[in-house]
Each structure stands twice: as C-alpha cells, then as structure tokens.
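Quiz preparation item.
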C-alpha cells in the first residue's frame, strides 16, 4: 500500500521564500495577522489529518468503491467518519466568507490544504472540493435569499455541492444539452432530465447535497445562449433552514470507472425536481464559469497530487530495492546488489517526477496568490491585470499539470517494475486515478484551444504579452547575475521564440482556422514548460541567495538548484520538438484530398 508524508518544507519554500506570501498578507488589513506561525500551524494539523486519517483510506476506497442499493449511495469504509472529522476541524470554512460562517483566510493558504488532502486521498478530497465551487458560485451569482438559505451549511460542510453539466449525448459541447426547466407560479422551476459523470452526485457523508444544474427554459435560444443555471437540493429546504422532504432527484446508477473508485460518480435523474434560478435567464453558462474555472484549478492540483504521491513512493522504493550493480562499480558492496536509486536511468525518472511536482506547486501557488491579490486590490486596473493573468495561466495549469502528473504516475509504475503493476503497492491505482484528470473539467485539447484561440489570438496577443512582460522583467533584472546564466539565457531565448511562434500560427489561421486546433495542444505544452522554466529559475535564485547568506540547510538548497538544472537540461529541451510540430501545419492531420483512415 502506498504511503504519504506531507512535504511541509517544500511547501514552506514556495510560499515563504519564493513567493513571500507573508509580506503580502501583512500588507492587508484583513490578513495582517496571518504569518508563518499561523500558516504552519494549519499545515501541521492538516498534515496529521492527511497522513493519519485520509492516506490509510486511499486503498480502501479503491478496493471497496461506492455502492448503490435501494436508492441509497454508500461511500467506502471510513469515508463518512473522516468527513465528519474534517467538518469538526473547521476545514471546509477556511477561506469562506465571514458573513456565512467562514474564516476568510487567504485562498493561497487554503490551496495548500487542498494539496495535502488530495495527495493523501484524491477520491475523498473531491467531496469537499466540489462544495467550495458551489459556495463560490452562489456567493457571486446567487440572490440574497439563496445565499442565506444555502451558504452557511455549505461553508461549514454540513451540506455538500456538485456541478451538473454533462448529459448522455453531450459532453463538452454544452450547447446541445436538453435538461428542461419549467417555471412554476411560486417562482421555483421544475427540472427534468438526466446528467451523467456527476462527481460526488450522491453519498452518505452529508445531510444534504446542493446540485448546481444547467438546464433550458421554455423557448430558450438554441446553443449556449439558451442555458440557465439552477439550484436543485437533494432535500428541499424548509423556511427555517432545516432539511425537508426528498426532492425528485436521484442517483440512477454509479459509473463503472477506471479509477477514483472512492468517489461516487453518478448518473443523476431529475424527474420533475424543484429548482431555483441562479442569475439571469439564459446566462447560466456565464455564471457556471465561476464554478468551472475553480474546478479547473482544482484539477490542476490533482496533477500535482499524483506527481507528488508517485515521487514519494518511488524514491522510498528505489532506496530499498536491490537490483544489479552500478556500472561504475558497487555502491553497496556489503549487499548482494545495489539499490536501484544509484542507477542513472532510475534517477532520471525520479527527478522527472520531482520536477513535475515542484514545478506544479510553484505555478499553482503563484496562481493562488494572484487570486488573493485580485481580491484585496482596490484599484480596478490592477484587479483586471490579476484577472487577465489568471485567465491565461489557468488553462495552462489545468492541462499541463494533469498531463505531466499522469507522466509522473506512469514513471512510478516503471520505477517499481513488475511490482508497480501489482495492486498492493498503490502505483497502478495512482495511474488509474490520475487518468481522469486530463478528461474532466475540459480535456487537454479544449483547454489548449481556449488558451491559444480564445485567450491569446482573440486578444490580438495581448494576453500573452502580460505573461511575457512578467517573465522578461525577471530575465532583464538578472541578465548580469553570473551564477544564474545557465537559466537566464535559455529562458530569454524561449521568451523571444514564444511570441514568434504565436504570430506564425495566427497568420496561418487567417487562411485556415483549423490551423489553431491543429497547433493548440503542442502550443500549450510548450507554454507549460516555459512557465515552469520561469519558476525554476526563480527558485534557483532563491536557493543561491540562501547559500550565499549561510544556512544550516545546505543540502536542501543545493537540491533546489540541482533540480532546476535537471529541468533545464533534461525536460525543457522538449520545447524544441513542440516548436517544430505546432507550426508544421494542419495538412499533416487534416487534408481533404486524402483519407488515411
């Protein structure tokens, strides 16, 4: 069975040394008392809960899965009790609004909690994870009455939430959805339809489940312009806020999945269920993007979690597993063979896992800090800047981190060899659990098309310029820092190449729009490696400065520099291939004169 240990020191490095979150917190009246002591106390307590309660349930959840009997969904052994501990500990309310029972702590701090619980047990973490998206959607778009009815219970975790988008005939193309919402005389609506792939759709962990549902009103326009958003509770809520009668919404079946067995992924039937409109009619997709964008960041975290889990278990195994002798001579002459961690190819795989985990953590925590800065800013231009920055980085984080998280999970199986293919070690579960991350909340292709087509080309390149200006500022600030040149020079070259490639694709798309779709995934992967390169260059600088000043953690900081060097020399060169393939043209994948199939 796999093991998990919260990487507290690595998290502290990113938060306190790389991003200097404490200086920002102290500059905000609301958070001026949120410093290292409070943050580390929260992390330590969450680490105990993740390591001691959630991690042991990870394999149990995979083996037992969820069950549906006589209309009742039951989660795996221990899941419900763990959730009660989670609620009693106040974890769901960490960054929630004070007026609805939240603690209003920074989202960048809450992100670390999400990483810890997700790495320990991803399937379990999805139950509270979706509730946070429901909270944010209601807080931003709900009426005052709706907020008063639902937000306190959702914030404290007594109730959980879901997002109901997909239907049997439509996945990402939501313009095709058919679920109907008929208005009632009392202002409510009657919803009829079927939703599939609904994570945490029904379960026994909370007293009520609040579904956030996309549906069509009568005579609504076709396509995405005719979609509205609704609240549909599992149990209707009485006037005094208590749970009332069962609503006409039920789990018709549990999906038989490749992984994440511990999470109840449901077919949800709305058979004349009572619902309530959120926001304006036919503007449901606009409102739902609040939930969807948060879910994309949540899925990016999943990529980090699977990479971290794979790395931790792989390095522990590699230190103990004896196989063959080192080609340069025995490294453990007192043993029958050397531990496999001495073999360069195994070390290559371990360092790749570690680079994807640490690179993802740096990028994700940076995005979390952008969110906090946007929330605290009173300057509209500044708020727009942070929002624009997040808009570009979110699809990169979601797609790139899940692709590389899956690669790291696969490397875990490879390092374990035949044992990795056996269930008892937990590596094959990690691979199965991670595979969904590239599919839900928008596939890699959809995120890539959003990045290149919608965010960058449709803005005339202005969205990319925001990122380039930030990265170039760092390069120019350190172009004369001798010890950083091994990172600055390659990064500078990429920052020159990136906009040129963008222009080349944009020019080709003027003649054939399909050029964008043909290039977008390679473009996003290229962008992800450049973003990680920026983060690793910054981390190397921080580590170099710490070593200059003198530290009793010499090995720790040397390791940061070593990992940055590995990333630049072994992983960043992948951009060379992506630079070639993204501009190779649409004809090699779509030529109307040839049918290769």
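Solution:
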């Amino acid at each position: 069975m796999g093991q998990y240990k919260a990487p507290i020191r690595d998290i502290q490095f990113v938060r306190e040394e790389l991003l200097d979150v404490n200086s920002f917190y102290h500059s905000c009246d609301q958070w001026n008392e949120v410093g290292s002591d409070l943050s580390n106390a929260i992390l330590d307590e969450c680490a105990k809960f993740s390591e001691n309660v959630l991690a042991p349930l990870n394999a149990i959840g995979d083996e037992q899965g969820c069950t549906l009997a006589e209309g009742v969904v039951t989660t795996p052994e221990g899941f419900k009790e763990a959730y009660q501990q989670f609620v009693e500990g106040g974890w769901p309310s960490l960054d929630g609004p004070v007026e609805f029972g939240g603690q209003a702590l920074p989202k960048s701090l809450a992100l670390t909690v999400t990483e810890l619980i997700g790495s320990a047990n991803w399937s379990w973490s999805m139950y509270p994870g979706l509730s946070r998206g429901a909270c944010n959607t209601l807080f931003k778009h709900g009426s005052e009455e709706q907020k008063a009815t639902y937000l306190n219970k959702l914030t404290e975790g007594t109730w959980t939430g879901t997002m109901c988008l997909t239907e049997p005939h439509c996945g990402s193309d939501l313009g095709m959805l058919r679920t109907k919402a008929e208005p009632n005389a009392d202002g409510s609506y009657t919803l009829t339809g079927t939703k599939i792939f609904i994570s945490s759709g029904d379960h026994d962990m909370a007293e009520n489940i609040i579904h956030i549902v996309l549906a069509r009103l009568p005579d609504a326009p076709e396509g995405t312009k005719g979609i509205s958003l609704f609240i549909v509770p599992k149990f209707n809520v009485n006037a005094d806020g208590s749970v009332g009668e069962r609503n006409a919404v039920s789990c018709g079946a549990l999906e038989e999945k490749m992984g994440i067995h511990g999470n109840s992924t449901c077919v949800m039937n709305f058979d004349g269920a009572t619902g309530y409109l959120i926001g304006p009619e036919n503007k449901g997709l606009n409102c739902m993007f609040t939930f969807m964008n948060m879910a994309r960041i949540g899925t990016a975290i999943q990529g980090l979690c699977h990479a971290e889990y794979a790395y931790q278990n792989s390095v522990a195994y590699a230190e103990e597993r004896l196989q063959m002798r080192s080609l340069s001579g025995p490294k453990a002459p007192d043993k029958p063979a050397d531990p496999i961690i001495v073999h360069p190819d195994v070390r290559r795989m371990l360092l790749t896992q570690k680079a994807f985990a640490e690179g993802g953590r740096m990028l994700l925590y940076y995005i979390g800090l952008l969110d906090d800065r946007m929330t605290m800013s009173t300057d509209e231009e500044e708020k727009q800047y942070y929002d624009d920055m997040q808009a570009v980085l979110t699809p990169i984080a979601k797609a790139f981190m899940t692709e590389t998280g899956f690669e790291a999970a696969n490397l875990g199986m490879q390092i374990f060899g035949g044992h990795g293919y056996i269930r008892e070690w937990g590596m094959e579960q990690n691979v199965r659990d991670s595979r969904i991350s590239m599919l839900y909340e928008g596939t890699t292709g959809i995120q890539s098309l959003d990045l290149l087509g919608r965010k960058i080309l449709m803005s005339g390149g202005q969205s990319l310029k925001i990122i380039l200006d930030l990265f170039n500022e760092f390069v120019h600030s350190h172009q004369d820092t001798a010890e950083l040149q091994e990172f600055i020079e390659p990064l500078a070259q990429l920052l020159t190449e990136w906009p040129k490639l963008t222009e080349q694709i944009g020019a080709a798309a003027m003649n054939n729009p399909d050029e964008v779709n043909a290039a977008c995934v390679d473009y996003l992967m290229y962008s992800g490696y450049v973003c990680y390169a920026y983060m690793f260059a910054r981390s190397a600088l921080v580590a170099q400065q710490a070593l200059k000043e003198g530290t009793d953690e010499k090995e720790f900081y040397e390791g940061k520099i070593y990992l940055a060097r590995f990333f630049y020399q072994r992983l960043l060169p992948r951009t060379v291939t992506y630079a070639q393939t993204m501009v190779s043209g649409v004809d090699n994948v779509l030529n109307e004169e040839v049918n290769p199939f």
